[in-house]
Amino acid sequence: MSRRMLLVGLGLLALLVAGPARADDPPGEEVVGVGIALGKDAESDDYPAVKKLLDAAPAHRDGRIKVGDRIAGVEDDDGKRTDFKGKKLEEIVPYIRGPSGTTVKLVVIPKGKDKDDAKVIELTREPIQP
Known about the structure:
Elements: H1 3-10, E1 32-33, E2 36-39, E3 49-53, H2 58-62, E4 70-75, E5 81-83, H3 89-96, E6 103-109, E7 119-124, E8 126-127
Antiparallel strand pairs: 1-8, 2-3, 4-5, 4-6, 6-7
């Protein structure tokens, strides 16, 4: 069974933000991201929650993002934030994926904390290995 089939089967739609889990990704096309799988659940406050970190991907190597953290949004270079509350995972993906070597600033709410405790974590996007 391929990794893509396994991830889609588990409903981890948002390795789409970081890896090859989207069913609409063209076969053989390079996927660039930070290596996190997102999902929604009752504890996530209507924010996407981190369900998995891909081994050796940017988020995993960095170590600051943990399973159970919520991604509240992204921040641009001017400090303006785009909030992800209530957004579908498909709407979030384009904010997190991008060209290899570019950075994304994720607004992360640590597991068990509220939005007032959110921190900005900057990661460099890179190709995600299947």
